[in-house]
Specification:
The structure is a homodimer. Chain A has helices at about 15-30, 45-50, 55-65, 90-100, 120-125, 165-180, 195-210, 225-230, 245-255, 295-310, 315-330, 345-355, and strands at about 5-10, 35-40, 70-75, 105-110, 130-135, 145-150, 155-165, 185-190, 215-220, 240, 265-270, 275-280, 330, 340-345. With about 350 residues, chain A is α/β, with parallel strands linked by helices. In chain A, strand 11 and strand 12 (about 275-280) form a beta hairpin. Strand 7 of chain A pairs antiparallel with strand 7 (about 155-165) of chain B. The structure holds 3-isopropylmalic acid (2 copies). One 3-isopropylmalic acid (IPM) sits at the interface of chains B and A. Chains A, B: InterPro entries: IsoCit/isopropylmalate_DH_CS (IPR019818), IsoPropMal-DH-like_dom (IPR024084), Isopropylmalate_DH (IPR004429).
Chain lengths: ~350, ~350
């Protein structure tokens, strides 16, 4: 059964890193006879420049038909002054929402070979392995009403709506409980239930779900405390589940604990396990086109894609093993460079992974 | 001119730590002939237990009349199952809102004597001195409409509103620009202007204000990136200004970078410089009543009170010098204890500060 992967390089370093991941996927496709077909499309700033919209219909159609999507990154300063509806980010948000990719999985893992890259003390982060499950198609990102209105006083007021229904909370809760079952069996739900009504409902539904997963230990934490605990003692966490906005903040904080955000992949899944995969880092316009970006987060995103959307665990593990091997060989792109290692370009890193496969 | 200070011990360790701060204020009152009168009142869980409401009218009246308020902390597990409107936190939120204490100043300072308490590497945090200016009476904390409603489908939806008017943004912006003028002249405004309309307005107003403060260098950062940058390189920041919810999260994260949240005071001011002062840490119910809590954040909050609301800079500096002296003497409460130091109780720490005055 042939399966289709849509490649969306996007902006900034996106094209460079996706190119390396594509080579890796091609080789693994042959090695494991996966029957993958590749398509490509425009999204974000690249799409704005060619078609005047961040998510062209053609891209959305291809995305809907694809079994999985590999995205580079979107955004850059040249599009920052556009009105909100026309910005590169809307391409990303449109894909998430149209494909109903509600479950965002963001691992924060410290690679032992890169332990010294962290700004935290080694004993605080060594062996760190957290999974953040972020709700991705609801909450304040998509809540209505929203906008800027003029008040009677004549001054303007900006407003957004933070809303969740029971079923939205339940389905992301299930994903998180299931992830915890397959890991350390500890789930921490993060909310602000002492202030926000929407998160009181969130907490209630999480508590309800507990009955279906008696083997998982559920705890609750306020978001301000979670932001603190991630700095103080991050290894206390196994799986964290939270809403879209809190998840945006905490997953970036958690990623940075490792010091090597250039290594971290992510998955965004719908209930059919169709998924979009992308590195946690952004489009890094400052280094775009220089051939020095780290392609490993994108290559590891391809591995996640094989695991979650294509059910090819062995192929996923082969890629992950190859990445581990190049790190063992001491190869480093600039962002993870340290004394005594060998500095390589984006392409050299991609080639090294290919060779290690 | 006599001035009135309202003491609100609150819950958990609140009464123990406020008692020490009160001794310090009494002594400084005599030494500097400040003419301070002290009153006290109930708030939070303590008020619920006695009067069935977290903010009794009597407390609100006293607070309104007072020149400044010193608060311990509110909240504890015994009140966690109460409905939102009756919880201890509502006492705190009610004071903030009724007194219009819109400007929350939260310094994150690393005391050189306590450098080893941080979970971050010494070179990343040594000399850290950030001021977070958080808007405290608007945003999603107070936005209407809010609640839980039943949808036509029969399921419930929780919702809150994140809103800011131009004038709300402008007044907190001015406080932040002025704080930056008196410090390192760098201001970073944190928003999520790539997704939330309310923060597009926020960014616009901050940009407008720039003209009034040409000596301050203004930058903007998305909240997810700010959460990352605080971990990666916190010393890049001087003053950070942001809304109520983002400020809640980022100020706790920043405080924890120091590893000694038991040391950090905060101020909440209105436009008449009337203010409420409280430690950044919470009510710590797990250690309440044991006499081991750290009173220094509350004592330093009293110093902030003298500086900001009572215009007694010399008296404020005297307290801060005394705190620094007891740290130099190697005295440590349990939370900041390290090898070779002398472990002391809450009361011993308070007495040591008194002696150092
Ligand atoms: C680019 C932006 C809209 C996006 C988000 O806020 O979700 C990004 O920060 C992310 O986390 O994927
Ligand atoms: C207790 C709670 C309501 C409060 C807040 O969220 O503002 C606290 O976390 C704080 O930061 O002062």
């Amino acid at each position: 059964m042939p399966r289709t992967i849509l490649m969306l390089p996007g902006d900034g370093i996106g094209p460079e890193i996706v190119a390396e991941a594509e080579k890796v996927l091609n080789k693994i496709n042959d090695q494991f006879s996966l029957g993958l077909n590749f398509e490509s499309g425009l999204v974000g700033g690249a799409a704005i420049d060619e078609t005047d919209t961040p998510l062209p219909d053609e891209t959305l159609e291809k995305a809907t038909r694809a079994d999985a999507i590999l995205l580079g990154a979107v955004g850059g300063p040249q599009w920052d002054s556009l009105p909100m509806a026309k910005r590169p980010e809307k391409g990303l948000l449109g894909l998430r929402s149209n494909l109903d990719l509600f479950a965002n999985l963001r691992p924060a893992i410290l690679y032992p070979q890169l332990a010294s890259a962290s700004s935290l003390k080694p004993e605080v982060v060594s062996g760190l392995d957290i999974m953040i499950v972020r709700e991705l198609t609801g909450g304040i990102y998509f809540g209505q009403p929203r906008g800027v209105r003029e008040l009677e006083s004549g001054e303007r007021q900006g407003y957004n709506t933070y809303a969740y229904t029971e079923s939205e909370i339940r389905r992301i809760g299930r994903v998180a409980f299931e992830a915890a079952q397959q890991r350390g069996k500890k789930l921490c739900s993060v909310d602000k239930a002492n202030v926000l009504e929407v998160t009181v409902l969130w907490r209630e539904i999480m508590n309800d779900l507990r009955r279906e997963y008696p083997d998982v230990e559920l705890s609750h934490m306020y978001v301000d405390n979670a932001a603190m605990q991630l700095v103080r003692a991050p290894k206390q966490f196994d799986v964290i589940v939270t809403g879209n906005m809190f998840g945006d903040i905490l997953s970036d904080e958690a990623a940075m604990l490792t010091g090597s955000i250039g290594m971290l992949p992510s998955a965004s899944l719908n209930s059919e396990k169709q998924g979009m995969y992308e590195p946690c880092h952004g489009s890094a316009p400052d280094i775009a086109g220089q051939g020095i970006a780290n392609p490993l987060a994108t290559i590891l995103s391809a591995a996640m894609m094989l695991r979650y959307s294509l059910n090819e665990e062995k192929a996923a593990e082969a890629i992950e093993a190859a990445v581990s091997k190049v790190l063992d060989q001491g190869l480093r792109t600039a962002d993870i460079m340290s004394e005594g290692a060998k500095k390589v370009s984006t392409r050299e890193m991609g080639e090294a992974v290919l060779a290690a496969l």
